[in-house]
Amino acid sequence: MTTFNTRAYYIDWLRTIIVYLLIPHHIAITFSHLGDAYINLPIKDDALYFFIQSAFLNLWFMRMLFFISGISTFYALQKRSNKAYFIERCKKLLLPTVFAMIFVCPAMGYFKAITMNNFTDSLFAFYPIFFKNIVYYLGWAHFWFLVYLFVFSMIFLIIRRIMGNIDTIAEKTGCYLSKKNRIIIPIVIFVFFETLFRPFYPGFQTLINDWANVSIYFSFFLFGYIIGSNSNCIDIIASKIHLFAIIACISAISFIFLQYAQDNILLFTGYYNDMTYAYKLCLSFIRGAAEYSLVLLIFGIAKLYLNKDNQIIRYLSKASFSLYIFHFLIVNLIMYFMIKLSWNHFTIYFLSIFLVYLLFFIIYELVIKQIPPLRYICGIK
User: Fold this and answer.
1) Average pLDDT of 108-137?
2) Residue 266: exposed, middle, or buried by beta-carbon count in 10 A (0-12, 13-18, 19+)?
3) Secondary-structure percent of the chain, ordered helix, strand, coil, rounded to 5
4) How many CA atoms within 13 Å lie on the side-chain side of 63?
5) What is the pLDDT of residues 62-87, one digit of tens each?
6) First-to-last C-alpha distance (Å) of the chain
7) How far is the C-alpha of 129 from the C-alpha of 98, rounded, in Å?
């Protein structure tokens, strides 16, 4: 069994960068309408930038979180019993989700009610409306990730308990994948699941009837566990970034173009309308290749260039879970006022990003870090 005595700082960097990318990602949705948001421009902005940003990030950044969560799970279970791991998952995943469903999600839903439904009453009066129409008001919002990760962790614990020797299997699989170019083989799994499920289940994070996302995210989680079990696998990923870069460039550019073209280029719109399933199948095939290659490319780059510790990453990493919990609420607060301005949309977009980061760090230092229950919820020691 491979053992690890030093901290993988590049994983801290990856996790932190992805969480901080949620702010520009969610602000962009206000303009593009390419996803769920609580506040939208009355008329969407069709700027190509917003489409490319959303399409590109959606190909890899949440998948990367599940992948590195699988790696972290391997590390954690080398130091903890199954019971201790279960308790830790409840504290870090379930508790923040319950807190968010009581305090954060209704507050975010309130912004949707007052901007889109002409709701004029108080936040307190909105609470029963939120829970009666929870799906319309986006339910658990971005906290779907915590729910999915908790479910995957519990399923994995059950598998680990039943099989017993799963760590040995993971290490042998990792050893096999670390030879020659075999690390490319798992791409077949992701292409298979995408083509099997994505045309029918495009992706709504409800856990139930979300077969495409569940199969892909859980596969990345398991794959991360396998990679974490063998350091040679991690090294081979870093050594193959040129291969992954070629696959990622071809597949990601093709996917983004075809996804954009189906609604914006008349010829491709015709193809999509005449051969909808075939078009979706083609997109799903390319998506599977793109998501796998992008995750491993970015992971390999991080391993090579971000495996270092400093005070900046320590601070940002420590604050990242607080940002994850509260960022969308702060985004709504800022965008509620910003969309009323008649400025250029890109000026509003970049200024909003700055203001959300600024307001978050003020709240983090003056409020979150000063209140013990919030510190506990946000995992601040």
Assistant:
1) 95
2) exposed
3) 80, 0, 20
4) 26
5) 999 999 999 999 999 999 999 999 99
6) 31
7) 18
